[in-house]
Amino acid sequence: MTASLNTRTAVTALVVAGLVLLPVYSSISGNVFVLTLFTRIVIFALAAVSLNLIMGYGGMMSFGHAAYLGIGGYAVGILAFEGIGSGFIQWPVALAASALFALVIGALSLRTRGVYFIMITLAFAQMAYYVASGLARYGGDDGLTIYKRSDFAGLVNLSNRVQFYYVCLGCLFGGIYLVWRIVNSRFGLVVQGVRSNEQRMQAIGFHANRYRLVCFVIAGTLCGLAGALLATNTDFVSPSIMYWTRSGDLMVMVILGGMGSLFGPVIGAIVFLVLEESLSQITEFWALIMGPLLLLIVLFGRGGIDGWLERLRRG
Amino acid sequence: MLLVVEQLLNGLQFGLLLFLLAAGLTLVFGIMDFVNLAHGSLYMMGAYFAATFVAWTGSFVLGVVLALGATLLLGVVLEFVALRHLYGRDHLDQVLATFGLILFFNDLVRLIWGPAGLSLPLPGWLTVPIQIVPGVFYPSYRLAIIVVSLVVAALLYLVVMRTRIGMLIRAGASNREMIGALGINIKLLFTLVFGLGAALAGLAGLMQAPILTVQIGMGENILILAFVIIVIGGIGSIRGAFLAAIFVGMIDTLGRAYAPDLLRHILSPTAASTAAPALSSMLIYLLMAIVLVVRPEGLFPAGKR
Fold this sequence. Notes:
The structure holds 2 protein chains of 2 kinds.
Chain A: H1 7-29, H2 32-57, H3 66-81, H4 87-109, H5 114-133, E1 144-145, H6 161-183, H7 186-196, H8 198-203, H9 208-234, E2 236-237, H10 244-257, H11 264-282, H12 287-300, H13 304-314
Antiparallel strand pairs in A: 1-2
Chain B: H1 2-32, H2 39-57, H3 60-81, H4 91-113, E1 129-133, E2 136-139, H5 140-162, H6 164-174, H7 176-181, H8 186-208, H9 218-233, H10 238-264, H11 269-294
Antiparallel strand pairs in B: 1-2
Helix pairs in contact in B: 1-5, 1-6, 1-8, 1-9, 1-10, 2-3, 2-4, 2-8, 2-9, 3-8, 5-6, 9-10, 9-11, 10-11
């Protein structure tokens, strides 16, 4: 295999190496904060990768993707609360619940197109948000504290910071690999074909919506995994995890990194969260800078960071 | 029974307020094909402007008029500086850019007015309860909101249905390229419509301000409701927005008023009081989902007629 060395692959390799070696740096320098920050980043990157699957490759602009974060998180939180501590039960339930939710709302939402699709996915996510705030037994608006992290029978110890980071990173790389396999499979090609011309795909005999729906469910399930990780990371889950601005954040990460590029969302998540973190350290009013920055990125930065790297390569 | 009348009026009042917000949104959406998440920020700015100007001038009416003008100006400036460049773009770009504007406005408000909310005190003549039917008193301010909203709705109807500008607006909603090809100055029309929408949002915000506190993020929840309304009503349709707004206002208000009692039959009292607001909020989204499944283009799609 001869990988041509260009800026894009170089940056990708650099980021991967950086993410893998981060705990080493953290333990040498004694900087624990950077590890906690990047655990969060890696989890959000997984969510962004899953959103990119439907948004970038499938052309489905879901504005309710944060709902799966909540569902995955609540599945883990509620089971832990009810005394079922085994990760072998908690995590599959989290995935299954997310998949089921994606199946139901996908089947309904995919009847609509364009702005209507953006809005109906938003509406379903808000519904999930209100359901969570109505769960009196599980804390309602105040959220649910998870007192004990999932128990994987000694296989991994999620309470160990470094081990948990590598679990998250493994999930992220697994997610990217999955998306890569999907995108290059026959199934993925059909989904991308439907994005560019639905009528033509219908005409040559593909059930466009069936392909879309399966893609939608896969993305939802993957994001549910991110939700389970996120809740574990904070030992806490509350309705705000799926508030609509969170869905907006995820969309920003995908577009910032580059829609429809395999690794773009990861870079998008890193840039977005690091920017948020560093701006909020400079000034309390970080959004005053972040907001217009987003506007400028949309106005002038077509294709996101990935598109920019691609242009750089072409010169 | 008396309570029912009061709740129905509350529902009507909230529905009309939602209509003011949704009308601007649906016009902008329908004509410019522009998704403006920052519409809720204009609503918030209207409320902050009103609270500030009323305190400055000491007069409620003068302050409100100034606030309306300021919101209109803000809308026009916003359109001119930023949003105008986004019209031809993908909906996604628009969602993202205006999402950035929400972040910006929220922090701007925090910077100028501080994180604590403001309150907009009512003048004495708006606080007396009025007897509407024998034995039923209703706050005069809420009644005033109903009257003002109805008047504005009627004016809007007249402007859109009976004037040349309105004709252009309607034409723009059904076929944008065509009215451009017929030699209409679309840019000017867009700026005008955007300013109008901003003023309507500001009006809704400042009228709601004395009832709730003026606070950061007040525009966000109600913005989503407004989106639900225009999606139910059909994008670009004022009539659809009106009916859907009244409907949603009623469901929300009556749901909040009666769901706790209904739920008490099946749940424990504490669980019922937590679940009820969630349930009534959910009802609205459920309604939207049903409408979209049955009629994916909303009840009164503008482009089709």
